[in-house]
Amino acid sequence: MENIGLGTAAIGRPIYINIRHEKPRVDVSLPEFRKNGIGILDHAYSHGIRFFDASPGYGLAESLLIEWLRQKNDPDISVATKWGLNYVADFNINATVHEIKEHSLEKLNEQWEFSRKLLPNLKIYQIHSATLDTGVLDNKVILHRLHQIKKDYNIIIGLTTTGANQVEVLKRAVDIEIENEPIFSSFQSTYNIMEQSILELKEILLNTNSQLIIKESLANGRLIPNTTFKEHYGLYKYITKLADKYNVGADAIAIRFCIDSFPDAVSLSGASSANQLQSNLAAKTFKLQEDEMRLLSRYKIAPTMYWNERNQLSWQ
């Protein structure tokens, strides 16, 4: 599997939690938005990407992929999608609520009925933002339903994690068995220069032969040098130095850090334009040196600080 995949949140809905470094277009019609999304999928494909990550929580993402997959008719394309998050903003950028989490059996069955249209390219089906609070990892009915989907359709069952207790959730998930076999063998977690907490599970993930998918490699835009987070000035200065050395953007340095940390993982690009995607893919043109990885690693911050900072970001 390629070490860079495309996350489709940014092409499925008009805004997301991030620091936007490009001015958003607020006058785009829904047909134009769909056309742009299909264009980015085509651009990714033409540049070698064969792994795509979606969710019902990403607005149009699944329907775009279903349409596009029929056009491509390529069995080498792998898709991961999720259940448990609803997109409710209806493409209104001024909406007060954009998404709602619901980890119920009813929601699983409802969203699976649409998501299954991604078959046969659908390879991984994930719980979206699994937490200990929702009790989804203790819900035997849901776990058995996921196991049934796994068996009936020969797909991998996984989960995604978000929040300061990612490690605790992952440790709980890897031990869950249904019918004497692990139910989860794919884990999508936040990892980047600032948030490195899942490194302590590297050996566990390797020993269980699990697929790791890395999301938010750019820390929702915070790893692109900016004036909003002046406390990260030292990191921004070093990233800029490395970007100049390798003749790439700061985004490529951040993504390369993830690739070199977990060479067998898939690191997701969250690009919303062809230019962004091209810049992200430059991460494949070089490899960070050991001393550079070591210096970048020193810029990690405590998970609670990272997630508190993330919670201050706006939808834009």
Binned, the helix content reads 25-40%
| First-residue to last-residue Cα separation | 32 Å
The major beta sheet can be summarized as: 8 strands, parallel, barrel
User: What number of domains?
Assistant: 1
Main sheet strand line-up:
1-2-3-6-7-10-11-12
Keywords for this entry:
39% helix; two-stranded antiparallel sheet; eight-stranded parallel β-barrel; TIM Barrel; alpha/beta; 316 residues
What do these coordinates show?
The protein is an alpha/beta fold and 316 residues long. The chain has a single domain, classed as TIM Barrel (Alpha-Beta Barrel). Helices cover 39% and strands 15% of the residues. The chain has 12 helices and 12 strands. The chain has an 8-stranded parallel β-barrel, surrounded by 4 helices. The protein has a two-stranded antiparallel sheet with strand order 4-5. Helix 5 links the parallel strand 6 (122-127) and strand 7. The longest helix is centred in the first third of the chain and has 17 residues, at 30-46. The two termini are 32 Å apart. The model has no long low-confidence stretch (mean pLDDT 92).
